[in-house]
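Check the record.
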Amino acid sequence: MKLRILRFLDAAVEYAIYGVIFFIPISIALIGIFAGIAIVFFVIKKILSPDFTSLKANNVLFLFLFLFFAFMDLSLLNSGPLVAKSLKVLLIKWGRFPLFLWAIIDTFQDTRRVVKVVCVFLFSATLVGLTVFTQKFFGFEFLRSRVSWGYSSPSIGPFKNPNGLAAYLTCVVPIVLSFGLWDGFGYLKPNHGLVAKWKKVVVKLFLLLITAILIMSSFWTLCRGGWLGLIAGLIFVILVTNYHRIKKVFWPLFWSSYLFFAPLIGLALFFYHNRRDSYRFTLFHGAWGMIKEHPLLGKGIGTFMDYCALYTNNPGVYYAHNCFLQIWAESGIFSLLCFLLFVGYVFYRSIKVSLRMPKSLNFFLLTGLTAGLLGFLVHSFFEVHLYSFQLSFLFWVVLGLTVALSFSLDQG
């Protein structure tokens, strides 16, 4: 009886996470409901069967995550009269993600489930691409009935603004592209639920067509940070998938490619001047003012919007338009360093596993997930996606899947 209950709980967590992924661009309410179901059922499963293997196997990763949260806790010392708000942000906005991340890593150690996840991403992203096209050319968006800003205006798709759509596409396009680059379609047995051999070309063309649609959708957002993130992800896919051909020059190409992003980012920031969105620089100055006052522990988690006006002499409530600056301003340099070590460790292990693998399905899935995560973080230099309800779930889902798959393949 207990075994049946555990199987039910495991399946419930798995399909609840599928629900979160599918509804990321569609429904904020359903994201919260499915994430809540996943966390509650996962906790019950762990109470009935206290297996901490996935936690111990990723102890370095969770150590960095623990330190990140520990320094955010310490930032409450500087929150002053806003300590109640800081505590709420810490426990509710940030506090749900460690358990959610653990649930993903624990549930998706079976690599066959990761294939299902990518199929869910593919289906949801296809709907997003199609709704962007209908919005662009016919003036209606069928997922959330968003009003079009006009043919010549940036596309927003089912999101509230172009930056949200760009962030979603920046993360998802490399995943879909990598899946489409796999040559194994049609060579699996029919009982695997995939296409027969004679449909291989059709499936690959379909996936590449969807990729092209999503790239065009990203272009129509007119979001420069999103373009840079997408380019970073696509470069990663190209380099890693061709590793065995360019093995001798891989690392020089890899580092030179990404060092090239420094002037590109500077150029992108230059074009923010003398435009309406040049107000971002005012926010950057406000964030830097908070950092100079409390560089070690920050001004207090969740307080940026309350204190920023004091450092900019401008009214209004805004985010910093830079995830890394906002983390530093709110919770200090140690918190930011722990976050960078946390995501850096994920990239290190993922790249290490990818480069020693043959070009199997798992190789392409891991490459796509890692590239999507990289693109998301590059774009986060211009936005605060980790503070967005929808996009923060996107980040933690993709990060968790990357960790789960790289761990499973590293053990294999």
